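User: ok so my PI wants both of these folded by tonight, can you help

Assistant: No problem, let's get them done. Here's the first:
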Amino acid sequence: MAKKSSIERCIHIRSLVRRAKNKRDALKSVIYNRKEEPAVRFAAQMKLAALPRNGSATRIRNRCEITGRARGYYRKFRISRIMIREMAAQGIIPGMRKASW
């Protein structure tokens, strides 16, 4: 089980990203628009740099919903490989079962 502070930090970062998404996207569209004047694009870059770093989507760390484990994460199920194995063995995940051959 991950530390409670790590899990809470990830939740906080996700909320910051959700709040800042529109503003960041608007600034990026100005920055990447080659038809804008260089001064306007540079000003947009400065505004983007002034925003909180944790508002960037690259700061999000995918964690298991059950244990908070950061590694071995399956996006489809939003849980770690260990929990997938346990839940599949218990028959909790529909259509999944342990392989045997």
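One down. Here's the second:
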Amino acid sequence: MLKSFLRSTVYHAEKGMQRLRFISQSANLPALLGISFPKSGTHLLDQILLGFANVAPYARRVHSFYAEYEGESGKKRDPQQALNWLDSLRPRDIASAHLFARPESVARVCSEKFAPYFIFRDPRDVVVSHVFYVTDMEARHVHHEYYKSLPDFDARLKVSILGRTDTNIEFPNIAERFAPYLGWLDHKEVLTIHFEDLIHHREATLTSIMDHLLSRVTLQAPRQLILDSLEASINPKKSPTFRSGKTGEWKKHFTNEHKRIFKEVAGDLLVKLGYEKDNNW
């Protein structure tokens, strides 16, 4: 409790200092909301959005993070918790979330209160990243012990693709896990970002991120300074998604069997997200 109080106190003190630093800039700025599908560049998007703090009175750290599932228990949170969290955010906050596109959440996010962004990644790379994360990087994860008990990487990858039916902890297949996020693709108020574009087309993607906010508000800083600030804020060492710093890593790990089961449960998803034209991959 004390730790939370101190964190909140420091956050608001820093936010106040930012307001003084940019006293001539309008304080009526929307909260920046980074929505992400898990293992798709959450920390990377956080870093980029925090780059706006160098040119405007935005917070210099992420206000808070919300996830639809509790990490250690795997328990699904009540939808009202997401709405309460969204309602708690204030102008000039920067926040991050694994947030489902439920109608009530969409109505709040697609309002003047927020400048929202949604980042996602090739689901094939997601499932590979998920195996490494659960097995090697997060010992407190609800599925960690189960993944460690499996004989090899191939077996773990199958679970990340197909989900689990042997437990009361909700963990469906990759397509069903992505389904609650698909609604974010249907709203022009939300800028959609392919993780891969931040690797291979970074300048153009950062420009889109900048312009998404500038279409809503006016910042006093020159465009190039804003763009440079977003670029300079990226720190690959602090982003777990940069485990390899590459895209298309699934090709090293997918066997023919992995390809077959992935196509069965999520082939349409790859087409819908623009990663494939059909199932002939």
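Residues 33 and 95 are 5 Å apart (CA to CA). Residues 2-21 form the longest helix (20 residues). Good luck tonight!
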